Amino acid sequence: MLRKRKRPSSRLASNLNPQKINSLATTAERNVDPRICGLLDAVRRGWYQLRTGELFVGFKVTRDDIVLDVGCGEGNAILFCAKQGAHVVFSDVDATKIKALIQKAKKSPARKVEGFVSDTMPLPLPDEYATKILSTEMLEHTSKPEIILAELVRVGRPGAQYLITVPDFRSEMLQKAVANPVYFSEPNHIQIFDKENFVRLVENSGLNVKRYDTWGFYWTVFMSLFWMVHQQDNFDSPVLDSIKPPYHPVLQSWSNTWAGLMELNGSEKLLEAFDKYLPKTQVIIARKE
To answer: How many helices (H) and strands (E) does the chain have?
Structure first.
């Protein structure tokens, strides 16, 4: 069974409007919540573009779309799509998360809401069902990524667009040196993908890769520091549930530093270089021809 671990920015993206994001971005003079800092960084890199309706740059969602999110977790991505008025469909192995997400999505402008419990092998959906398909930070949790992708291809319509993300191998290897072993054991990160293997996996499923990108240097450093300051912790609950206030001074200092750096004039080229050479996440946008 696949269990989707909570991403640090979960529950935040769907609740912030552009004005709120802009006001949060001018907080270098005081402590910035690390989760908010991560969300601001995500928006900077092209995620959650409320004005254009793009979940990620080049992946626009409209009211005409049927959006499927497998391993949806807390649902920050699908709630963004729901705000665009799309028909949203989502699955996870955690029934509690599905129930909560159905309630949230039904309060949105989504034209239809479907949520169900599934490990994606198989999905209880007909062939050629969805026009947009999301698999974000999920394939690293399964020993059968090829089977998962084959199922996602089956339920996509001809011309369907796919947004697929996995952790970057450089970030994973850096964390592996200091992380609690539970993080790289089932049901957590049991697959580590480099670019070649990730692209090959998607192409072998029959999809046409249109774009490859990386981002998330902020989270690579944050998580590496997180393991250092939480070496003695027991992780009986999902690991990233531990990312909550009060934050260790080292983590708070890193968040403040990154938030301040994002505000500096001319810093964008440096930030992009960081995201290129030590990213947290790899992103592929693909198409079913």
So the answer is: 10, 10
What lies within 8 Å, CB to CB, of 210 at 6+ separation is 58, 285, 286, 287
Peptide bond into 34 cis (omega under 30): no
Structural domains present in the chain: 13-287 (3.40.50.150)
Q: Tell me how far apart the alpha carbons of residues 56 and 36 are, in angstroms, rounded to a whole number.
A: 18
Q: What residues pair up with 132 in beta bridges, in sequence order? A: 67, 161
- Gap between the Cα atoms of 99 and 33, Å rounded: 28
Closest CA to 162 of 173, 180, 150: 150
Q: Hey, what are 164's tokens?
A: 């697929």
pTM for the model stands at 0.89
Residue 156, burial from CB neighbour count under 10 angstroms (0-12, 13-18, 19+): buried
- For residues 31 and 250, the answer to whether their CB atoms sit within 8 Å is no
Instruction: Give the number of residues written for the chain.
Output: 289
What is the rounded CA–CA span in Å between residue 43 and residue 21? Answer: 9
Residue, of 10 and 209, whose pLDDT is higher: 209
Predicted confidence (pLDDT) at residue 1 exceeds the cutoff of 50: no
- Residue written as token pair 């983590």: 251
Identify the residue with better confidence: 260 or 5. 260
**Sequence-separated (6 or more) residues with CB below 8 Å from residue 199:** 209, 212, 284
Q: What is the pLDDT of residues 229-264, one digit of tens each?
A: 998 787 766 676 778 899 999 999 999 999 999 999
Q: Which of residues 65 and 29 earns the better pLDDT score?
A: 65
pLDDT of residue 210: 98
d(CA 187, CA 71): 13
Whose CA is closest to 244, among 59, 34, 43, 80? 34
CA distance 176 to 224: 9
